[in-house]
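Re: [help] complex structure
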Amino acid sequence: MAGGAVSIKNVDKYFGDFHVLKNINLEIKENEFFSILGPSGCGKTTLLRIIAGLEEVDSGDVLLDGESIVHLPPNKRPVNTIFQNYALFPHLTVYENIAFPLRLKKLSESEIKERVGWLLNLVRLEEHAKKKPHQLSGGQKQRVSLARALANEPRVLLLDEPVSALDAKLRQELLIELDNLHDKVGITFIYVTHDQAEAISISDHVAVMNNGEIVQYGTPFEIYESPANSFVATFIGETNLMKGDVVDLPSENYVVVEFPLLGRIVCYRDKPVNVGDTVLVTLRPEKIRITHNRPTFIDSTPVNILHGKVDEAIYMGYQTKYFIRTDGGYILRVYKQHASYLLDEKIIQWKDEVFLFWNPDDSFIVEVERS
Amino acid sequence: MKKTSAINEGYRKYGLVYLLWLFVFFVIPVFSILTYSFLSRDYMGGVVFKFSLQGYKDVFVKSYLVVFFRTVLLSILAAAISIVLAIPVAYYISNHRWKNFLLLLVIIPFWTNSLIRIYAWIFVLGNNGLINQFLLRIGLVKTYIQFMYNNFAVVLILVYTYLPFAILPLFSSIERLEKQLFEAAMDLGCTKRQVFFKVLLPNIKQGIISAFVFVFIPSIGTYAVPELVGGKNSRMVGNEIARQLTVAKNWPAAAAISSILLIITIVAVLVFMYGGERRETR
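Output below.
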């Protein structure tokens, strides 16, 4: 199999008066694992259906390896879809479901047998070949639909929230399986999800969508570490999003922001700002260190230090989520990873007085409102 | 456990009442028809309580076999045409925003007496009916076309009368189907035609069987339709039963025809139910 590159050019789509997709442009490279991530109703599934041919565009173009496929019906596109509810044919066995697209192509019985056998092996369902869909578990059904979609040797596989109907543990397993499958079959995967953890864990590139627009495009690392705006910052992972005013510009890289209830904090200056601007600053909870004793620093790296009290401590096993009320009264989220829980000098508990500190690079500006 | 058995006990009581009702109004009449068919004829009407096979002998003649054959054929035709018409209608309704309202529209004709609805067709199809008047007015024909009093009219009115019985079971089986199956089929390479034959039809097989049985059974026993819109050569079994009973005063023969009709019906239902069942559990 060989994957195809998909380009989406200036695609617009309306449902009645509702502008579902607003001038979408995307370049998806061949053989990559690409995710379209966004909250429900953002238009991500519509975009996927447009690539599949199940929905028509109002304007714009969809190209596969440089050739327009926008006017081809779904059965003429070298693209196959994994549906959220599996969409297995209830009247056919697992074997016949996978053989379905091959029979349409009028392949010989021996060719079909060989190909279906290979696919059953790929998704590890050999012993279930004779079962009907209603006899399978959710994870097995999804693996059948994977095998069926791959039977046609598509250039691009579209996955519409393929694991969202499964329970958490199974979801993790199937994600890893999808990743392995992607490496094995070597075609382009376009994966639509509302779950940021899924998207950033398996994708080469992610497009974040909101209200019918692509708000950010990048690698999972870029999207998590430098969100383009406050929507991306809060949608991907968890964060402390704080609003304050710029009061000083001490150096080329840093800016001092005055936050209500928090006071003055040194933030990273990755956007042009002036004194007096109102800014939104994001600070990931896991970037904040938390200790009982006031930290001491040898070098002169600027560090933000705050003092507060534990308002809430939620023990999660692998980490504890602390809600710290600072002396000013602001509640900050701080996540402490338990690399060696029992070896920590003293476990931080509810009502403890604590110090918080973090590198100013980790608190950075995501949005600027000009004064 | 105790609670459920108490509920079961209650159901059993109601079940008993229903069984009694069935016995008095269904089992006894059917049994008496079967009995009458083996009794002797009283020429004034009614029967003489003496065993005889004359009723069946009277019926097993060529003219009656033709009627039986015609009845089964017209009923199959009506059922088949109903299904062909009902599938697109049921599909359309199941995809419509106002499906409940549309279903109500399907059922509304039942609020009117069927005889009146059959008479209404005479105004449409008759020699001075709407269609003929229209055709004469625009000059398409010189003289009226005979739509009425033939097999065409019988099948047409049967389909008209029993079409809702085909739409309803087909609707419920199409409604149950996940619409994404059709998209998946297109995605995997089906043309629209192939989606219909390879995905829709096999998945609504149970609905098709039900629709067939629901139209076939009332059609095979119909009396009013051929009586009102049929001609000499479109008499059906129901009309023969009535004639034996009222005109010929041959009650054993009427009972014999009824018994044969009963057997044909049972066989037909079993064939369809069993045929569908076996495929389903394959």
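Chain B has one domain: 57-280.
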